[in-house]
Amino acid sequence: MRAGETLGIVGESGSGKSMTGLAIMGMLPQGGSIIDGSVRLGETELVGLDESAYRRLRGNDVAMVFQDSMTSLNPTRTIGDQIAEPVRIHRGVSRREAIDRAAEVLQLVGIPRSRERLHDYPHQLSGGMRQRVMIAMALACEPKVIIADEPTTALDVTIQAQVLALLDELKSKLGMAMILITHDMGVIAGRADRVNVMYAGRIAENAETADLFAHTQHPYTRDLLASIPLLEQDRDKPLYSIKGLPPDLAHVPQGCRYASRCALATDKCRLEEPSLRGDDPAHTFACWHPVDGRPAEVSVTLSSRPPQEPLRDDATHRLRITDLAKTYPASTRGSRRGGSVLHAVSGVTLGILQGETYGLVESPDAVSPHLAG
Ligand code: SF4
After folding, report:
1. Average pLDDT score over the chain
2. Are residues 179 and 37 in the same domain?
3. Which of 31, 88, 247, 359 could be disulfide-bonded to 371 (CB atoms 3.0-4.6 Å)?
4. What separation in Å is there between the alpha carbon of 244 and the centre of ligand 1?
5. 107 or 271, which is more confident?
């Protein structure tokens, strides 16, 4: 990876994405060890580095944004202390200077009144704010490489877009290289320069992002792309999904690891494991029968949305809410701020019929009664 570059690592749970990130960070779970290969950060070989040397690098030259900010932040310490800690350790500055830096990076990640927020504890912030704090912690020492492990999984789509845009902007501003780990092909499409598709602990396909989408070679990549739901899909037809489960990595099957789920599997696939290959070294794949961009055999027909039903005023509603409003006093650390009031909810009216699924989404344009019947 070069400075300013984003590498996407994509794959379903258990494919080895996070484990790759943790291996780079020297933070493998207990019992895990690197038994082969090399990880070089600039001139430094990380494999075999002792823990004290790793501590000097971690958070300073390479940093990680973890996926769940609520469990990754320390609930007993203020966010100011947590962001300042790596600055004090790696920069050797005073506590005051470290706190000043913490306020600076909080500002950088778009948290308003950053100096005031330094005194907050993680539970006092929203999910989006906590994720920004995680990014601030990772950026505090301006690392050369940042590993963002599903940084937006726990966030709703609007905050997700903001956090991803922020990571992009900061990466360019600070000249970092970024590894973006995700199971979401949409996140990859908009952000990564290159993509590694991983399956069962191995790289299945590696290509520049545009090339991967336009000239997919590996059936697993193609199946992942076919699994993305489209708004215009016929809602009466089941969504495309990849049948079966990834193999148990304690008992790796012979041959291609995807064979039990692959529609193109042959006897050769079940006997011999393919290695990464390809005519173009910039686009490699591990498959005996590449699909050459052919789409998965998934029947998707276009259909217009059924007209939305008006809210019915009859007795069949299982739940009916009329003009609901909710406020609560705005406060920080238990003290009320000048008696100001937060209007959490106002004027909400909805009715849920028997057997109905009601969708509530955040976009003002999309919220309407009977969005999903
Ligand atoms: S090697 Fe065979 S089983 Fe494996 S992905 Fe390719 S076609 Fe499917």
Report:
1. 85
2. yes
3. 359
4. 15
5. 271
pLDDT in tens, 226-255: 888 888 877 787 888 888 999 999 999 999
Task: Return the best residue to mutate from 260, 266, 269 for the ligand 1 pocket (most ligand atoms within 8 A of CB).
Answer: 269
What are the respective helix, strand and coil percentages of the chain, to the nearest 5? 30, 20, 50
Average pLDDT of the segment spanning 209-226: 94
Closest ligand 1 atom to 264 CA: 7
Could you tell me if 142 and 263 lie in one domain? no
For residue 94, being part of any structural domain is answered with yes
Work out how many domains the chain is built from and give that number: 3
Do 217 and 141 sit in the same domain of this protein?
Answer: no
Going by the DSSP 8-state scheme, the letter that residue 263 receives in this structure is: T
Pair 56, 111 in one domain: yes
25 with 170, same domain: the answer is yes
What lines the ligand 1 site, CB under 6 Å?
A: 219, 256, 258-259, 262, 264-265, 269, 274, 287-289
The upper half-sphere exposure of residue 62, i.e. CA atoms within 13 Å in the direction of its Cβ, equals 22
Measured at the alpha carbon of residue 155, what is the angle toward residues 100 and 148, in degrees to the nearest 5? Answer: 60
> Worst-scoring range by mean pLDDT, 52-66, 154-168, 264-278?
154-168
Are 132 and 188 in a shared domain? Answer: yes
Q: Render the burial of 136-147: b for 16+ CB within 10 Å, e for the rest.
A: bbbbbbbbbbbb
Instruction: Please tell me whether residues 140 and 35 are part of one structural domain.
Output: yes
Q: Which domain holds residue 332?
A: 307-373
Task: Pick the atom of ligand 1 nearest to 219's CA.
Answer: 5
Reported as a single tens digit per residue, the pLDDT across 326-337 is 887 765 554 555
Read off the CATH number of the domain in which 150 is found: 3.40.50.300
Biggest CA–CA distance in the chain, Å, is: 74
72 lies in the same domain as 159? yes
